Input
Amino acid sequence: GAVVSQHPSRVICKSGTSVKIECRSLDFQATTMFWYRQFPKQSLMLMATSNEGSKATYEQGVEKDKFLINHASLTLSTLTVTSAHPEDSSFYICSASGQALNEKLFFGSGTQLSVL
Amino acid sequence: QKEVEQDPGPLSVPEGAIVSLNCTYSNSAFQYFMWYRQYSRKGPELLMYTYSSGNKEDGRFTAQVDKSSKYISLFIRDSQPSDSATYLCAAERGNTPLVFGKGTRLSVIA
Output
């Protein structure tokens, strides 16, 4: 299957700092990338959808000023959690799809964010 | 009512058993159906991908979609301890974000 690389896999930070998470499609061009959040023993919750070169579309209840998404190229999207607080601690997962893959969706390995 | 419903389990079976995982959905516009496997603290891995109704087989895994009853199934034959994971069903209308079920936690006991 296609490869989606996500970094870092784990980050621990102090409250008030900003954290950037990268998502890269390694062997295909990702026209669309999605960012999810997952709490323990819960399903994936879609946060936002980003298309290359456009502003991200955020789901209801997700603060766009807190979760900054940039999709500057067809292979890279970033999620920046600004001024992180303990309640932002969660597992963040990106996914990517592309026309060459018949829009199948492949996921990154996830990032465990812990805010102290 | 959630668009995709899935029993979260947990489901515990002995090694070698046939496992049946199921989801129901409410939106008749869904055309694409997927099953993902997720190990703890890892991203979901695409297992099966089907379009519309019918069966699809890949090794020990068989996916079934019955659009008339809005029912999605995944069967695992000769289950192994390494199959222990959370299995997520998902549905899509086409060019829209996936809608996921809650996931079913499966434990295969050696």
